[in-house]
Design goal:
The chain is an all-alpha fold and about 70 residues long. It contains five helices and no strands. It has one domain: Orthogonal Bundle (434 Repressor (Amino-terminal Domain)). Helix content is about 60%, strand content about 0%.
């Protein structure tokens, strides 16, 4: 699964709008939309913040594992 699909699925599973996530990340909704559609690569700092928002590992966001649990 492409990582941009995973961040969209997580957002939808948590019942957030793109605007809500964009605000939490300090950006405008159109910029976040481009990340979620795969039009732009997500910067590392944004990936880390998304992982924190959803309580998953960055590896999970990137599709490197199907286990969403973070290592402790």
């Amino acid at each position: 699964m492409a990582y941009y699909r995973r961040i969209r699925d997580l957002r939808e599973d948590h019942d957030y709008t793109q605007r809500e996530i964009a605000e939490r990340l300090g950006m405008l909704q159109p910029q976040y939309f481009r990340y979620e559609q795969g039009y732009r690569d997500v910067p590392t700092d944004i990936l880390i913040r998304l992982a924190d928002i959803y309580g998953v590992s960055v590896d999970y966001l990137l599709g490197l594992t199907d286990n969403p649990v973070r290592a402790k």
